[in-house]
């Protein structure tokens, strides 16, 4: 087993837990990006392979390190055939890394394929420059044979063994973290899983014993699939505070990338000083999720599309409404590993309505007959409301009406009927979704409108209600309420609803601003599409 050298111990004492990867197409761009993050995150990896002429950039980087003496730098010049961007030869890579120490770097990253191709004496020459050596391995397709990878690295006696496989499943993270736990006594291991499903290892890898982890400088500057921005890792996931007592929660679904639940629930845990972290779990299969829950173990889960129904058969028990609806969005795991299901979507819909009106005998029109509509219809019937369903596919509406003791209504009848509430439980109005509204102004005969869509905050339906002077509830309120009830089920504490609402509104506004900034300015030659071309993203 390799013994950590004096160099690696010296470097270990000055590096942070998060290394921020710096990219750029020119040295000036890299320095600008490095300067923007160095105060908060002084541990930086300069991806020299992103530059056309890495050697020419070294004097500028030397000045950066001279001005930022607290910074610690890794020089990486990974060749194209090994997953990097450098098109030069091995000798050229070695020349760059050989001059790294002179430019102020403390560490160099040499990929295993290059290390194995070195001639006798070349590695020693590199080490004589005084840098600590990271030997790195990347697998862009799987998480497998980690011990074999380690054995391949041992002959080079690196100061750090960097092992970066790809998580195809959630449990691949467990494989990597068990490996780190096992090896960390005898070597400095740096391990993360790439890919959307790899977030568990990015947040919990340090707890497993990884010497440090990697982050992007900002969102959009990722150097590996699934990499997270440093600020998100530190502020949302608070990875520098994750310890052995930290409880793990998450939202499981597919797709999950755009879910706002991690921002909202992590903010709630932070506000209430609960030692817990909440992860976005990219779950393509329910079985993978169930295996993860047993192996990690995860204390509680939010379940979103498309698993809300399939998960039911794997639960020990559920609340009566979940059983009636046939779907649950919340799981609590007991100490002995049993899973209990709840449906907080119902509370997210009924709660905001009951704050404003009495539902007993209220006449409610529900648009849609999918998952959210089912929660609305069963929840409203449970409170004694008279419920009418209008759906694009009439048969689905009829089936739901039969199951819940509700009625269906034809489009022609809507304009002639006065409702107390109209609820939109279709994706119409979601950002990126183009399509005709289900109701026009003269069909909005109601005292209250509730649009379950929460992105954008002001949907076309909400705008219409506002224009007509009809009171309304936005989907953000449902989103916060269903999340608040989850927080309470898991922690037994009242949820910090104001803080949850604040972070959700802040994020949605930021996203809206970014979308405006990114939107192309139409020119005469640009054709503006008139038909629905984009599928909406689902996430809760
Ligand atoms: P779902 O199960 O896929 O159901 C979608 C429903 O909308 C179906 O009844 C579908 O009709 C109808 N629909 C879809 N596209 C349509 C179109 N272009 N025109 C007319 N009807 C259309 O989805 P879900 O889980 O119920 O979610 C629905 C919406 O609720 C989501 O988009 C989301 O924005 C919102 N939601 C919000 C929260 C929150 O916390 N605020 C939580 C969950 C959901 P067919 O039966 O004809 O397919």
Inertia-based shape: elongated
Largest sheet at a glance?
8 strands, parallel
Mean of the pLDDT scores?
Answer: 92
Structural class determined from secondary elements:
alpha/beta
Helical proportion, percent range: 25-40%
Q: What percent of residues are in strands? A: 15-25%
Helix count, DSSP H or I runs of 4 or more residues: 20
* Oligomer designation: single chain
Q: How do the strands line up in the largest sheet?
A: 7-6-5-4-3-2-1-8
Question: Which helices and strands, and how do they pair?
Answer:
Elements: H1 6-14, E1 18-22, H2 27-37, E2 43-47, H3 54-67, E3 72-76, H4 90-98, E4 107-111, H5 112-117, H6 122-128, E5 132-138, H7 146-153, E6 160-164, H8 171-183, E7 189-191, H9 199-208, E8 213-216, H10 230-236, E9 247-253, H11 261-271, E10 276-282, H12 286-295, E11 300-303, E12 317-318, H13 320-325, E13 330-333, E14 339-342, H14 344-354, E15 363-367, H15 371-382, E16 386-390, H16 394-404, E17 407-408, H17 411-414, E18 419-424, E19 446-451, H18 460-467, E20 472-473, H19 475-491, H20 497-518
Parallel strand pairs: 1-2, 1-8, 2-3, 3-4, 4-5, 5-6, 6-7, 9-10, 9-11, 12-14, 15-16, 15-18, 16-17, 18-19, 19-20
Antiparallel strand pairs: 11-13, 13-14
Helix pairs in contact: 2-3, 8-9, 11-19, 11-20, 14-15, 14-19, 19-20
This protein binds NADP nicotinamide-adenine-dinucleotide phosphate (NAP).
NADP nicotinamide-adenine-dinucleotide phosphate binds next to helix 14, helix 15 and helix 19.
